[in-house]
Write a sequence for this structure.
């Protein structure tokens, strides 16, 4: 999993300035990669209300409603 780089506490200012450009470029690249994926999952959650599927007790009982809701969301998107 790729995540943006966080600053290190108690790091001297000289090292922070040296690494800042590289860290900013990496964080920007990660954000550009993750944003469309997070948007897709947010859209799926909004259209299918998929988070209510947590209440099921078996794997089979979980996959049937989830795949049905995802299929209906994509059909709704197409038409």
């Amino acid at each position: 999993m790729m995540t943006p780089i966080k600053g290190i506490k108690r790091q001297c200012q000289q090292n922070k300035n040296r690494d800042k450009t590289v860290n900013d470029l990496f964080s920007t690249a990660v954000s550009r990669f993750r944003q469309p994926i997070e948007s897709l999952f947010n859209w799926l959650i909004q259209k299918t209300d998929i988070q209510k599927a947590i209440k099921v007790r078996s794997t089979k009982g979980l996959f049937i409603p989830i795949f049905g809701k995802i299929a209906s969301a994509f059909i709704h998107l197409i038409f």
Observations:
- The chain has a mean pLDDT of 77.
- The chain has one domain: 13-78.
